[in-house]
Amino acid sequence: MRDIEHDTDDASPYECFDCGTVVVRTDPPGDCPDCAGRMRNRRTPLE
Ligand SMILES: [Zn+2]
To answer: How many structural domains is the chain composed of?
Structure first.
């Protein structure tokens, strides 16, 4: 068992700002695979 607050081994869903494409990755994808737009981690609060 590991006690890590930010579990980087766990995949997170990333959503494209522009087209809404969601990809599940363990690391930030950077650009959208569909439109090369910016991705955000859906687990991260928007505020
Ligand atoms: Zn996109």
So the answer is: 1
